[in-house]
Amino acid sequence: MAKKTLAAFLIYAILFTTVFVLLYPFLVDDGRVSGQHIRHEEIIVGRPSKAVHIPNAVEQRQVLGLYEDSRSLSASQRDSPLVAAFEPHPMEEPQQVPELPIVQDCPYIPKPLMKYVPAHHSVPLTNEEKLLAMCRQSKVVSLEDLFTETMVRTLSKIGEGAFADVYGCQGDDWRKLALKILPVGGDMKYNDEEQNSLKSIQPEMVVTLELSLLGDPSRLEDKRFPHYTKNFMQVERAAYCEGKFPEFMLDAWDEYDYRKDSDNDRPDIFGPKQQYIAFLLENSGMQVGSYVYHSFEEALSILRQVTLSLAIAEEALQFEHRDMHRGNVLVKRTKEEFIYFRFNNKDYHIKTYGVQATIVDFTLSRVTQKESHCLSHLDLNNLPWLFKGKGDIQFDVYRSMKNATKSEWHKFTPFTNVLWVNYLTVKTKIKGS
């Protein structure tokens, strides 16, 4: 019994230390915080000098823009290990956060999007009507019509997952874009798996669009919005479409298959009535698992960008990623010296050291649309194979999530985000180290 208690204590101590190191700059009073308003708090990578003042718990909360009285904090601030675990306390089993009431007819369709729904729509909306509204369409469009001439000319396949292929191209303004194509609603199996139904795809759509909205540039300038981060996948367009794969897409798929030996089915299996959800995205670089950091500062900047973005999404949307392995965090070079954030109406910036992180792929994720209390999530109890993997700590994280949530996947358990931050920290590789 004593050995089990000691083992549990060591595990939680490691996790707590990891998060504390990543968020340490939040806690440091560098002389600019006390007694004056600052537009942006700089989060600086590096080890503090001996002269640095280490604030107590009350000061820590002031620097974070929180309150001395913990009763003033929201539920997710109190319970999120990423945000509120700065006061010394005994390491205990992660607690479930009190749930908001859940509305049955989810996802919630905001009033401005209802103009895309037929005047004599169903009550409640059909799954097709919900998808059209979220994509801002009045009807299903042709898959081929998504592409401009420039996109066709520059198209290549750049990645794949069990439920989707991802293509890269350039827009008419020559910006690099990514296009994620997910088959939905069909009877034909894809990669030996059932396709997402028009209903089961909705949680991923809601999470993707809600997180993208957190990065809307207008939010950074408008103080009415309490949260901002652009480190989640930014959606240029979501589309509900149908049709056979055009030849230029099949050519791109074949070229990828020749180079990489694709694990996915060739999409010529799909007929003219096959439907898809497509996300046109800002191209966010390469997978962090393939990126070799050139310095300690680069690695720590990426981890801090990811950690702060998770904390913001937890507070704004009760967000859990639940699948943040190294393929779902992207890294790209940037000329921006700082990346800006807002958490609970307080602004921060992190020094980039030339790299920017983007968190992607929300197939397994969870959010609550706070305006309506609509919950969007995938019940991972329906994916038993997810918890049986071996050979990498990634699979241990899935099992740890299951233990932390007690398999109640609808509940908000932000401790799962800490598990993935710890995983990324363990997996970080620095050139020459």
UniProtKB/TrEMBL annotation:
SMART domains cross-referenced by the UniProt entry: DUF3635 (SM01331)
Biological process, per Gene Ontology: intracellular signal transduction; mitotic cell cycle
Domain Protein kinase: residue ranges: 152-433
Cellular component terms (Gene Ontology): cytoplasm; nucleus
Reactions mediated catalytically: L-threonyl-[protein] + ATP = O-phospho-L-threonyl-[protein] + ADP + H(+); L-seryl-[protein] + ATP = O-phospho-L-seryl-[protein] + ADP + H(+)
Entry keywords, A to Z: ATP-binding, Kinase, Membrane, Nucleotide-binding, Serine/threonine-protein kinase, Transferase, Transmembrane, Transmembrane helix
UniProt-listed Pfam families: Haspin_kinase
Gene3D superfamilies linked: Phosphorylase Kinase, domain 1 (3.30.200.20), Transferase(Phosphotransferase) domain 1 (1.10.510.10)
Record keyword Cell division present: no
Protein's name in the database: non-specific serine/threonine protein kinase
Classification of source organism: Eukaryota, Metazoa, Porifera, Demospongiae, Heteroscleromorpha
Transmembrane segments: 7-27
The species this protein was found in: Geodia barretti
SUPFAM superfamilies assigned to the protein according to its UniProt record, in alphabetical order: Protein kinase-like (PK-like)
Enzyme class: transferase
InterPro entries reported for this sequence: GSG2_C, Kinase-like_dom_sf, Prot_kinase_dom, Protein_kinase_ATP_BS
